[in-house]
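Annex B.
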Amino acid sequence: MNSYAIHIKPFGDSAVLVEWPKEIKRNILDDILSFKDFVRSNGYDEAHWELVAAYNSLALINNKSKIDFKKISAHLYNLYPLRKERVDQKFRLWKLPVCYDAEFGIDLEEVSQQTGKTVEQIITLHTSATYTVYGIGFLPGFLYLGGVPKDLETPRRATPRLHVKKGSVGLARKQTGIYPQDCPGGWNIIGNCPIPIFDAEKENPCFISVGDTVSFYSITRAQFDLHTIQAEVGLDLLIKESNSA
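5-oxoprolinase subunit PxpB: predicted structure tokens.
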């Protein structure tokens, strides 16, 4: 099991942030998730503590009171060498449909110019990769997916849009993601996914978790319309497979 030089710092009056090396690697994410489980079972219960893993960090947020940073940080430094590898953890591989029609892929031509790839090649590259969920934010259900093929790496838009449609699939440097609701955004939009990623009315609002993986497959506009209707009436269109880390 890999060990890393972690750093713990205050994160407000009621939280601490445990940081790992600033690299986007599956091994680092697995170590963070292992430590998260270990911390949860060593005094950081759900009634008092929210634990949020993302990319290179684990945030521990006390929802009840202010904390003693020196005491908490010392405890976490002592716990880290004692953690155990998650040998039985089952992640999910989610296969999500995307319509790449020009109506939805409003930045496809620009991405084509930046990468030197045709639109068809962009779609093929985007659907050929399997992406790791490294974090969920800045909106509820917004998935930060790492593992974009190098040929698709493009910078964020110089000027963000004031309105990006729900379900829009975007690219930003080494990441791809799905906008879970209408909102402003600066990613390059290449398609739209008709499957709702976040539903506040459900017991589990976001069905995808950090550590899961996602792959995309291309659908036609007619299939997009059908999937949209099916999702609205509550049909489960998700393709999911077990995916041990």
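The chain has two domains: 7-82, 90-244. DSSP finds five helices and 14 strands in the chain. Further annotation is deferred to the next reporting cycle.
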